[in-house]
Amino acid sequence: MQNNYKSQDFQSKLFQSLTKYGSKPFGFDKMLTEDVPLKKREIEYASSLPLQIILYFNVYYSIVWAIGTCFLWPLLVTRATDDNLVWIILILFAFSLTVILEIIRLYMGYVGNLSERV
Questions:
Q1: Per-residue pLDDT tens for 19-77?
Q2: How far apart are the first and last CA of the chain?
Q3: 106 vs 58, 89, 117, CA distance in Å?
Q4: Count of helices and strands (H, E) across the chain
């Protein structure tokens, strides 16, 4: 009987210490000190998992798109005539601007979603 009591006491102390030190980095320590039943201690997140998945795959898609466009660029330039030179410069400017804006868009999507500013 005494051994069973020591085992339960050790388990409860271990659980309390793990809860105490494991909850501080995530900010749950304030929530655990409240006298609220365990089922009501659920945390609501405003970040969106589907949006995060879409952003994750969009990063790789954008990289493949940019590399593919860069490989097709010499083909466009070699077939250009003097009449099309202005269009080629405009396309190059538009491509550069699109790549820069895509990087900013994906970065802001990641930061906004993960910091729960959706």
A1: 665 555 555 555 555 555 555 556 666 778 888 899 999 999 999 999 999 999 888 88
A2: 55
A3: 8, 26, 14
A4: 4, 0
